[in-house]
Specification:
The structure holds 2 protein chains of 2 kinds. Chain A is mainly β. Chain A has strands spanning 5-7, 10-13, 19-24, 31-37, 44-50, 53-56, 65-68, 75-79, 88-95, 106-107, 111-115. The radius of gyration of chain A is 13 Å and the shape is globular. Chain B is mainly β. In chain B, a hairpin with a 2-residue loop joins β6 (56-59) and β7 (62-67). Classes of the chains: A mainly beta, B mainly beta. The interface between A and B is medium-sized, with 25 and 24 residues.
């Protein structure tokens, strides 16, 4: 079956541009997570959705980062006025149940963002 | 502050050898410890996980050893194969919380044929 998909796979932006990254979770999965993975580092949590509700956005590094999941399925991570330090791989993950249990997270392949 | 410390950063072993990756944590509230495997260009995939009520869990060639008192856990890959070459991340989370895992920095494993 289809796993988590993300698009685009690669994005190059000039500093100051806005970007939008898309995540298509596994159908029916309740929970959706966004992570930022810098080169040579582990993923770092950005934000979490349960259905359409954004329950935790404590990891968003600044108010330039915004995420939404309006219908409880597809999610978009938007970064406004991109900076060079935003260059990273952005990973999306989904899990079948609500967070709080031992629900396995299924990761997408990520979007590699390069800000010039 | 890095809550989960992972070592070594890189590891090279010969085919058939044992690969050992270690992690240590500070937060005693952590109660779920998964290991993820990541190949280049792919997202991490859950490999094996352990809860603190057991000291060891084995799945095929992969074993997690857990030492609650020392707040340490490790991944052992027996009979390492070239196909095991990947980056491995340990993680820790709190089941009663948001279950959002805190990841280590990763270990790049290369298994020579």
């Amino acid at each position: 079956g289809a796993g988590v998909s993300q698009s685009p796979r690669y994005k190059v932006a000039k500093r100051g541009q806005d970007v939008a990254l898309r995540c298509d979770p596994i159908s029916g999965h309740v929970s959706l997570f966004w992570y930022q993975q810098a080169l040579g580092q582990g993923p770092e949590f950005l934000t979490y959705f349960q259905n359409e509700a954004q329950l935790d956005k404590s990891g968003l590094p600044s108010d330039r980062f915004f995420a939404e999941r309006p219908e409880g399925s597809v999610s978009t991570l938007k970064i406004q006025r991109t900076q060079q330090e935003d260059s990273a791989v952005y990973l999306c993950a989904s899990s079948p149940g609500p967070s709080g249990g031992y629900n396995e997270q299924f990761f997408g392949p990520g979007t590699r963002l390069t800000v010039l | 502050q890095q809550q989960v410390k992972q070592s070594p950063q890189s590891l090279i072993v010969q085919k058939g050898g044992i690969s050992i990756i270690n992690c240590a944590y500070e937060n005693t509230a952590f109660d779920y410890f998964p290991w993820y495997q990541q190949f280049p260009g792919k997202g991490p995939a859950l490999l094996i996980a352990i809860r603190p009520d057991v000291s060891e869990k084995k799945e095929g060639r992969f074993t997690i050893s857990f030492n609650k008192s020392a707040k340490q856990f490790s991944l052992h890959i027996m009979d390492s194969q070239p196909g095991d070459s990947a980056t491995y991340f340990c993680a820790a989370s709190i089941r009663g919380g948001s279950y959002i895992p805190t990841f280590g920095r990763g270990t790049s494993l290369i298994v020579h044929p």
